[in-house]
């Protein structure tokens, strides 16, 4: 049974733990380290892609939606994983990539050949009279969103790489195939699904040209600002309203008790988008890139909380499998910064997502071009967005070869400081790992993530949350400054129930504290 605001741990199997010596993580490796994940008090584990894939885009280019890639193991291994997760009192979530497939997928090959059944399962269009693509749409990777196929003598649409053709999600056969895919994994015990790029599902079938981006739109586009994708206002290739309604199909296919999480990955991130995707009969939650982008801006975070206005539909997160690690991107890479964001994740209202390694304060690794495999990073090298960095494998044991991740050669180079390893932090009471455990235990016990009332105040360097929950009043104060301490007017008897960087009078840089029943003037001092 899913709680109202779950804490979800996202792991990337290829980089989590390797039991075969291949240099790539596997499902047995995940099983081997489940006690570590369980110790964090999470409600669910989101297992990243493990399906058959040529790995052109990190496994999000799927060639078979119902088979485990042999590099990760077998379906029996997956069944064992589900059982072991359930035995530890956690729930299982897996990815579902419905927007596109790999070009190597049998469905796409049949569509190229004009197979009567699958001919229209993908998005095909004739060229203009001069042979050019049907319109001016640009893919999110910055190249034209159309690729010519000489066998079919048509262009096919792709919102990402040319080897990731878009499915025609309005096609009845496609709907049937995905309903059956969800049923396949539900029958194996899965408790929830994370839907990749759910806001990119549908487009205007008349396919007019996108207009140039207005400044207000340009400011909300994610990714490098030198990506030509940002130059367009994506009003025709991303029909978010139709896409939100489409998720009603997924709810019917899954049933009411299965947790459905969507990723909003469009040019225009907003609370309104998430709210439209999470109306009754749709998704349970839909996360946007807003927290990742403005996670070090207390005023921007306050504005998000006020816009949500009690509809806590968008989970909080700061790092993912394709976003640089947040203590480097939003902070200074310090342990203090890592503890600060653990506190923030523990108190914000709504669901929360952790990514593997953030509990160890892993910084963003530096990779040379020759070490990089991610196509987006390579495309914009040396100004790469850093998608590959968070996928550098987990460091488990400080004195073991490759930090205990593998006995072979890791698929990405590992150059961690030894004090980042799990074994080094296990026995240290003041380690980031043990602080995460305390913070997430506090989150589960007190449940400030489901407030009865919330008041937020913020300045350019601080934020306070006054939370009423279960008949008790709570005060959270967060110092976002990297250099300045924040005086907090408390009595000597006022002891925080959760704190990092509190010296009894002030919050030090990257300090955060939670008090029960503190005077309101404390919160006002942050405004």
UniProtKB/TrEMBL annotation:
GO MF term list: alpha-amylase activity; oligo-1,6-glucosidase activity
Gene name of the encoded protein: malL_1
Protein family: Belongs to the glycosyl hydrolase 13 family.
Keyword Transmembrane helix attached: no
Gene Ontology biological-process entries: oligosaccharide catabolic process
Chain segments annotated as transmembrane: none
PANTHER family hit by this protein: ALPHA-AMYLASE FAMILY MEMBER, NEUTRAL AND BASIC AMINO ACID TRANSPORT PROTEIN RBAT
Keyword terms, alphabetized: Glycosidase, Hydrolase
Lineage: Bacteria, Pseudomonadati, Pseudomonadota, Alphaproteobacteria, Rhodobacterales
Organism: Palleronia abyssalis
Catalytic EC class: hydrolase
Domain Glycosyl hydrolase family 13 catalytic, first and last residues per copy: 10-387
Protein name: Oligo-1,6-glucosidase 1
Pfam family, one: Alpha-amylase
Top-level taxonomic group: Bacteria
